[in-house]
Design a protein that fits this description.
Bound molecules: zinc ion
Radius of gyration: 34 Å
Number of helices: 12
Structural class: alpha/beta
Number of domains: 2
Distance between the termini: 46 Å
Largest sheet: 6 strands, mixed
CATH class of the largest domain: Alpha Beta
Number of strands: 8
CATH superfamily of the largest domain: Zn-dependent exopeptidases
Strand order of the largest sheet: 3-1-4-7-5-6
């Protein structure tokens, strides 16, 4: 089981962590952007098995959980990878920026591998390659330093960049970032796609259809009702509804089932053409070709023994 610690940075009301007002009238909060990406990651991961996710932030965004609490939770959880989603600032209304990824200054090889794979996937999917740096950077960040497992912090574009803001506000961008993250997680954690073959088309339960037709024709299955299983009660009914004559006069619905099985028009009347078709059917299956639907013929029609 691969354990993912997933973090949306900050909280909704964390001071300063928002888009620059002159670029985004709503001053969209950083946590809102971070959380949207985390939700999309979780949603996309649902197509796979073999993992578990722990969200480290307050999923309502109300509380800005202390960084120590977040890394403690990830360590206690025993995460295999810590992914922290953030958005950047520092362009002050200028242009440029782009996506950056961070690992701890003394990060091990594993963190660096994750970082490189993530940055490449992020640029491939989201295309927000900035002028700010090479995108794979190191920094003495609490989350990356205090987590016991490989950790990458992603800064998904600048909230105060004229060029980045219109992009990072879109759901499409969040989707592309999430797609990139999931692609890397799936590959590195070797997650398996959930089997997509939806339930095999249900076989028609012929016994059930027969029981229902028999009930319509006035038969009763007092013990088990129409349960779809062939048993003594069914045998008794089949014996009663046995001969050509009875089917002709009384049992329209059962006659239709016979007609369906032998391939003639389902008019519910056991006439000469139906009798002929039953004879042919019986002959084909090695039964006595008398044209009367007896117990053995019923069994063949219903595919029971
Ligand atoms: Zn942040």
């Amino acid at each position: 089981m691969f354990k993912l610690a997933l973090n949306a940075g900050h909280g909704k009301n964390t001071a300063g962590k928002r888009c620059l007002k002159k670029l985004d009238k709503k001053e969209t909060r950083e946590w809102v952007l971070n959380s949207r990406i985390c939700e999309k990651i979780e949603e996309k991961l649902k197509a796979y098995t073999g993992y578990d996710v722990l969200r480290l932030d307050d999923p309502t965004g109300i509380k800005d959980i202390a960084l120590k609490k977040r890394t403690d939770a990830a360590n206690k959880y025993g995460a295999d990878f810590y992914l922290s989603i953030h958005h950047n600032a520092g362009i002050k209304g200028g242009i440029g920026g782009g996506i950056e990824t961070y690992v701890y200054t003394k990060a091990g090889a594993e963190s660096k591998e994750w970082q490189e794979a993530l940055y490449e996937a992020l640029i491939n999917h989201a295309g927000l390659k900035g002028n700010r740096s090479d995108g794979t950077r190191t920094k003495n960040l609490h989350e990356c330093r205090e987590s016991n497992m490989p950790c990458v912090l992603i800064e998904c574009g600048f909230m105060d960049s004229k060029t980045d803001v219109p992009i990072i506000l879109t759901s499409k961008f969040a989707d592309e970032v999430a797609e990139a993250c999931v692609e890397v997680i799936v590959k590195k954690a070797k997650l398996k796609k959930k089997s997509t073959k939806s339930e095999e088309p249900k076989k028609e339960n012929k016994v059930l259809a027969w029981q229902k037709a028999a009930i319509k024709d006035g038969f009763k299955f007092p013990k088990y009702g129409a349960d779809g299983d062939w048993g003594d009660e069914c045998v008794a009914v089949a014996k009663k509804a046995i001969c050509k004559k009875r089917l002709t006069y009384k049992y329209k619905n059962l006659t239709k089932l016979v007609q369906k099985a032998v391939g003639v028009a389902e008019d519910g009347k056991f006439g000469a053409s139906t009798k002929k078709a039953v004879e042919k059917y019986q002959k084909l299956l090695g039964l006595t070709a008398d044209g009367a639907v007896g117990l053995d013929t019923w069994k063949k029609i219903l595919g029971v023994k």
